[in-house]
Here is the input.
Amino acid sequence: MGTTEKTGFYRLSWLQRIGYGSGDLAQNLIFQTVACYLMLYLTTVLKINPAFVSGLILSVRLIDCFWSPIVGRYIDNRNPKLGKYRAYLLYGGIPLTIAACLLMLPQAATWSMSMKIVYATVSYTVLSMIYSVVNIPYGSIMASMTRDNDEVLKLTSTRMVCANIGQIVVQAGFPIGLAIVAHTVIDWNQATFMAIGTIPAFVILPSLPMLKKLVGKKGLYYLLLSIGFIGFVILYSVGKFFDVESCNTLIQAAKVMTGVGLLVGSLMWALVPEVITEAEYRTGNRPAATVNALAGVAFKAGFSIAGWITPLVMGMIGFNLASEQSALPINPKAWFTVTCVFAIVGFFLLLLCFLGCKERIATTPEKPVTYGEMFAEFKANKCLQLVLSIFVVVFLASFISAPVNAYYTKLNEYSPTAQNAILWFTCIIPAILLIVVGCLIYKYPLTDERLDEINKEIEERSQR
Here is the structure.
């Protein structure tokens, strides 16, 4: 075993990076389906009142705020034979696939409204809880594979490329799949607009090490956020003052620019191992699952606030998703079929991730981590607090417009009131939130130089 192997600064092969990234691709096939289309399914297919859907999304996410730390604590305190973290890709993967397939049963469309509400509540809650059992340990694997900052950045880049493949497959593939199964005409402009914002990930993420050297870590974030802000301004200007259909090339280009800005959300996951390392430096424990659980709570908080606000406020403004003309086919069988395809493919990708990951610096505390210690760590770890704040805001910006994007290309078909509602959620609110993200990143204190010092001191302690 060489010096590098002894010190924990492991070099990873591309097979290991891609193997790990396949797990994010798998989870995004399910998560993006929920994030982008569940609200539309409940309101346009099942015809459930948007106000109830808004409350349901918020309630489930509040449950998850308590559930995720329980999962993180459980995982941190145990060491299964199949791998401290990777074992849960199998233990949780099977029920996750089943729960995803049961999320959009075609029979539910024929039930009474009270039965629809019970079904939606139970199916969504169960899926969300099982998702945490897979997602939290999956995120923890990254911090257990290597301490090397450059390797972590490469691993994050690979992971996020795979995640964005899942995102583009769902955002473009779901409406296309619905049209095919429902035997309706495919709206290619709509499908392209839904997915094209993901394109920058395939250019920027592989170039992250080079871009980081050119402009620095914070400089990279500021550059991406600025491009995204300009993109939202263009989308708003076209929607407000011009005919959207006649400016298709311009709006697609602007959507790409917004995707550049929202890509900062993907880069935030690279900060999680940094926070874990800083915690290990202070406490002697490496609470990977605990920190990932808290990061997951913040990530889902942004998602849940978006899911809560969007149908509620749009209804208050005068755009009721349940009664307005739907932007997507409402055939229940089509929704069920497309969801099942994504869920089953996702399971096989989780198997690939399980085989491709290798945990080498995972540790189990000498005594179980208590809830008091978890929240004491949150209180003491200023870097963690800041990163969690960024997670909430950047993912709120990402998801607040996700379901409404399907309506933007059909903007001219709606009333002036509805058009204003669509523009607020696809352009104005996300642009404001990107400014807030930039202010929070400005305060982040961990430089790469400081992290190298921390990692070296941790390894020196372990060898004494």
In short: Residues 13-360+367-462 form one domain. Confidence is low (pLDDT under 50) at residues 1-6. The chain has 21 helices and no strands. The radius of gyration is 22 Å.
